[in-house]
Design a protein that fits this description.
The protein is about 30% helix and about 25% strand. The protein has helices at about 5-20, 35-50, 70-85, 95-100, 105-110, 130-140, 165-175, 215-225, and strands spanning about 25, 55-60, 90-95, 115-125, 145-150, 180-185, 245-250, 250-260, 260-270, 275-285, 285-295, 300-310, 310-320. Helix 2 packs parallel to helix 3.
């Protein structure tokens, strides 16, 4: 209803995330198809932020029960093509019908012709149980990359009862399957169980436990139970261009530009943090370079690569799926 204001708010958040060096999902939070508007929006976002490795695009948050998977595929092809004109490799998240529950339909007919695509599943533990995890297993068995980009322990309305047993079953399942997940939501809506903040909590963060409601206390405990991993924020310095990555014929092709002689190293990690490939290219003079890295013998998985140019590191992740 107010695209300019919504875009401005989005840009504020994205730029804050870039400054902090944390991941951020640019989310088209819709239930129906708005293809023209989505293409326009994501074109602008990819042009402006596609060079940063911490950007993800969620192009259709929750197609409802009135939208078919075939319709979502047509829409997604148009939007992803618009993004890829300006951003060749950041991850794109695609929703599926019935509010992200029909992941089995995705498994039977996934998108083709793109790399670094993931599919979202949403659950509310008091409504969505083992039957949805079974659908996830079916999709994973067909090498469909899943991200749970919205979940909570309440009912699908966002309120009602909180099913802690089912919620824990989901968290244990996602941990076991190495599925990334995001809790919904950082909000202070009165009477909404899935909003983690009590009404009137500060908009500036720094919350104490007394500022959190029941699900907020629970989810913070869960998140703090994970072992912290020190991550170096990607640096984009004026004397280096961002690293551009493409995929073709089983190879990663990395293009980068040096304004002065530098040592260059490429390291590829699996999601457990183990280095599966390392290449020292030695010291290179100023100029533009394209490195080709053979990955055709690697198994399907999510990988993180790090490109070190002198003392500066660039990182990104990609999904390898055949």
């Amino acid at each position: 209803n107010d695209p300019d204001k919504a875009t401005s708010l989005t840009e504020t958040i994205v730029e804050a995330a870039i400054a902090k060096g944390v991941y951020v999902i640019i989310d088209w939070h819709a239930h129906a198809i708005h293809e023209r508007e989505a293409v326009e929006f994501f074109t602008k976002m990819a042009q402006k932020y596609g060079k940063y490795p911490n950007i993800l695009y969620e192009i259709f948050n929750e197609p409802d029960n009135k939208v078919s998977w075939d319709q979502v595929k047509i829409y997604s092809n148009a939007v992803i093509k618009a993004i890829r004109q300006h951003d060749p490799d950041n991850i794109v998240i695609v929703g599926c019908p019935h509010w992200d529950q029909d992941i089995n339909k995705v498994a039977d007919s996934p998108l083709t012709g793109f790399t670094n695509i993931m599919y979202s599943v949403h659950f509310y533990a008091a409504t969505h149980g083992k039957w949805l995890r079974d659908r996830c297993d079916y999709a994973l068995g067909k090498n469909i990359p899943i991200i749970v980009s919205e979940c909570n322990g309440a009912e699908a309305t966002g309120s009602g009862r909180i099913d802690y047993k089912e919620w824990k079953d989901w968290i244990d399942y996602m941990d076991k399957k190495n599925i990334s997940w995001l809790n919904w939501s950082v909000s202070d809506k009165p009477g909404e169980a899935c909003s983690i903040l009590k009404p009137g909590a500060s908009s500036n963060g720094g919350w104490k436990e007394s500022d959190l409601n029941e699900t907020g206390v629970y989810i913070r405990k869960i998140l703090r139970s994970y072992k912290a991993t020190q991550i170096k924020a990607p640096a984009l310095q004026p004397n280096h261009y961002p690293v551009n990555t493409g995929f073709n014929d089983g190879k990663i092709k990395i293009q980068f530009t040096l304004s002065e002689p530098e040592k260059v190293t490429f390291i590829l990690f699996d999601m457990k943090g183990s280095a599966v490939l390392k290449r020292h290219t030695g010291k290179k003079g100023a100029g533009m370079y394209i490195e080709s890295i053979d990955i055709k013998n690697l198994p399907n998985a999510v990988y993180l690569y790090e490109m070190k140019i002198g003392n500066i590191s660039y990182s990104n992740q990609f999904v390898l799926m055949r």
